[in-house]
Design a protein that fits this description.
With 162 residues, the protein is α+β, with helices and mostly antiparallel strands. The protein is 31% helix and 40% strand. Strands 1-7-6-5-4-3-2 form a 7-stranded antiparallel sheet. Strand 5 and strand 6 form a beta hairpin. It is elongated.
Length: 162
């Protein structure tokens, strides 16, 4: 190519695009809850009640169904509310809820609830991978502590419903 400026622009765009696609951050929190997977699943699927117990996902509009779309309202540590549309990628009752959303290249998320039989109850795991160029710039230090709070709140709600 004879135009070095155009070549520089193309290379820069390609590098930024590759960085956006391949940049990611992973979060994982888990807790053993003294309950059956069915009892925990019932709370997770009761979208109308999220505002009563969940300190992060304070509102869920819609119901979880494979291939469906759900609108989650989440609260960040400052108290600001954000609406995020999720596509339900996978739903295996009493075992897995997987949701994806975001803007490719900028910021996408792949959030999963996993339930596994464990001694003393059920291991509940929140696992998330965020991808995109925005992961370089945002303060994500609040995610693991807040997701830990969510699991503690889930445990209290499951116990309350027993």
């Amino acid at each position: 190519m004879k135009n070095p400026i155009l070549l520089s622009i193309i290379v820069t765009v390609m590098l930024i695009g590759a960085a956006a696609i391949f940049s990611n951050k992973t979060y994982r929190v888990e807790r053993i809850i003294s309950a059956t997977p069915e009892e925990i699943w019932a709370v997770l699927m009761d979208t109308a009640a999220y505002g009563e117990w969940n300190p992060v996902f304070v509102k869920v509009e819609g119901s979880y169904a494979a291939g469906g779309t759900v609108l989650n309202t989440f609260k960040d540590p400052s108290g600001k509310l954000f609406d995020v549309t999720n596509k339900v990628e996978a739903l295996e009752p009493n075992r897995l809820l997987r949701q994806k959303g975001g803007f490719t290249g900028v910021l996408t998320f792949d959030h999963q609830w996993l339930l596994e039989q464990a001694e003393g109850g059920t291991k509940v795991i929140q696992y998330e991978i965020d991808r995109g160029i925005y992961v370089w710039f945002w303060d994500d230090s609040w995610i693991v502590p807040k997701y830990t709070e969510v699991l503690q709140a889930l445990e209290r709600e499951v116990a309350r419903r027993k």
